[in-house]
Amino acid sequence: MATANDIRKGMAIVYNGEVAVVLETQHRTPGNLRAFVQMSIRSIRTGKSSDIRFSSTERIDVVPMMTRKMEFSYKDGEDYVFSDPENYETVTISPEIVGDAKNYLVENALVTMTFVQDKAVQVELPSSVILIVSDAPEGIRGDSANNVQKAVTMETGITVQVPLFIKTGEKIKIDTRTGKYMERA
Length: 185
Description:
Strand order of the largest sheet: 5-4-3-2-7
Largest sheet: 5 strands, antiparallel
Order of helices and strands: EEEEEEEEEEHEEEEEEE
Radius of gyration: 21 Å
Mean pLDDT: 85
Number of helices: 1
CATH topology of the largest domain: SH3 type barrels
CATH architecture of the largest domain: Roll
Distance between the termini: 47 Å
Helix content: under 10%
Structural class: mainly beta
């Protein structure tokens, strides 16, 4: 068993008899009161998020987690379907768990998926992805002042600011943490 001080973002814990994933954690020491740890958690069973407080020395059960490389296959209605490249086993995941990763998912894209008790709880993208520009307006001649950029639409539907020389159909590398253009691919 770990103390509340040992719990970090991304870990899985048992809270009220249910397994939950820690979304955020903060250690606080207000004025002359005792220290406590405030956490945002999401229940694996219900998918609901909640904010809770623990005494900093309170004991908490940590649930083991497993990570696997998965490949994005296709979107089935609202849900996302991933497959294991080794044994072709498929996993269907709700949009809440996929989160902002949906902006960078293209067919056969590799992701790292975290499982707790054989249920997917988190999708982690690589630090950068290569996407195709689906719609890029023409750069206006004479707009060559310092670092002028234009908004282009990618194949996944997101809009990214890129230099004027990028055209429709080109492949570019995008940083998944910031959503910014890195270079041509």
